[in-house]
Specification:
284 residues; alpha+beta; Fumarate Reductase Iron-sulfur Protein, Chain B, domain 2; globular; binds iron/sulfur cluster; binds FE2/S2 (inorganic) cluster
């Protein structure tokens, strides 16, 4: 999290421009608000003030702005949005820094563009979580009884694994990736909720899995228990929407708030999938 700067000189209030959208599939529009300056605010506290006042800069009463947040300490990823054109977490984006280092006049807030908007700054990140399901991003257990101590993990493996384990599924890497394109589906007439969810999952499975999931595959494949499912995970990387889509633009690694070495994971995943495909060919 960035260290807070001191109060910007001669600022009593500032403008916040928000890209709003009333519901999925509706047109978006910009709305301007004025917020009184207080020291050490983050973007969530700015949004709380805006929602409480619910009045635009020209005195119009509006519905309160909607956004997502949970942990307020850059752990859950729920508050991820595009702030002044850069994707990041609203809870760790400090107003003093934004006004002093980026734009002294206004703060611009937009929802992430690669996920369907639910309302205003809230987006539906279910495709991101579906990719983790596909990637089997967990260590399998064969029961919840006392299993005794787990297998030992060498310090070398721990050193490689720990940075990857910091992923908070925020979506910044996906927002920045040129190969990760928005998929937005609307319910067909007569389609049940279950049918719609099934169609969504099938469509997500055909589209790019994303840097976060590739990195999680590398994390769980190096775990002594997780690696028993390594082949199934690598199969996902060679399936439609797999690692072959990555164009190595490296935008993902530049925006990851947890500084996860995503391009190192992608390179290792590339080597692992090549070895996996050759092995499968010889095993036939
Ligand atoms: S390296 Fe791959 S995953 Fe990362 S931004 Fe580029 S295309 Fe996307
Ligand atoms: S890899 Fe980084 S940017 Fe991508 S979802 Fe995880 S924490 Fe967010
Ligand atoms: S509220 Fe959890 S990361 Fe911002």
């Amino acid at each position: 999290m960035a260290e807070p700067q001191s109060k910007p000189a001669s600022i009593d209030s500032f403008e916040v421009r928000i890209l709003r959208q009333e519901a999925p599939g509706r047109a978006s529009y910009w709305e301007r608000h004025r917020v009184d300056y207080e020291p050490q605010m983050n973007v969530i506290s700015v949004l709380q003030k805006i929602a409480a006042k619910a009045t635009t800069i020209d005195g119009r009463s509006v519905t309160p702005v909607a956004w997502d947040c949970n942990c307020l300490e850059e752990i859950c990823g729920a508050c991820t949005m595009v702030i002044n054109g850069r994707v990041r977490q609203a809870c760790s984006a400090l107003v003093d820094n934004l006004l002093q280092q980026e734009d002294p006049n206004e703060i611009r807030l937009e929802p992430m563009s690669k996920f369907p908007v639910v309302r205003d700054l809230m987006v539906d990140r279910s495709r991101l979580f579906r990719a983790l399901e596909k990637a089997r991003a967990w260590v399998p257990v064969d029961g919840y009884y006392e299993l005794g101590p787990g297998p030992r993990v060498s310090p070398e493996v721990q050193e490689q694994a720990y940075p990857l384990s910091k992923c908070m599924s925020c979506g910044c890497c996906l927002e920045a990736c040129p190969q990760y394109t928005k998929v937005e589906l609307t319910r067909l007439s007569g389609e049940t909720d279950e049918e719609f969810q099934q169609r969504k999952r099938a469509t997500y499975d055909q589209s790019f899995i994303g840097a976060h999931a590739i990195s999680q595959i590398m994390l769980f494949n190096m775990h002594p228990t997780g690696k028993h499912e390594a082949a199934a995970r690598l199969d996902q990387l060679t399936a439609p929407g797999g690692i072959q889509i990555c164009g190595n633009a490296q935008n993902c690694v530049a925006v990851c708030p947890k500084e996860i070495p995503l391009t190192t994971s992608i390179a290792r995943a590339g080597r692992a999938t090549t070895a996996h495909v050759i092995k499968k060919w010889f095993d036939r």
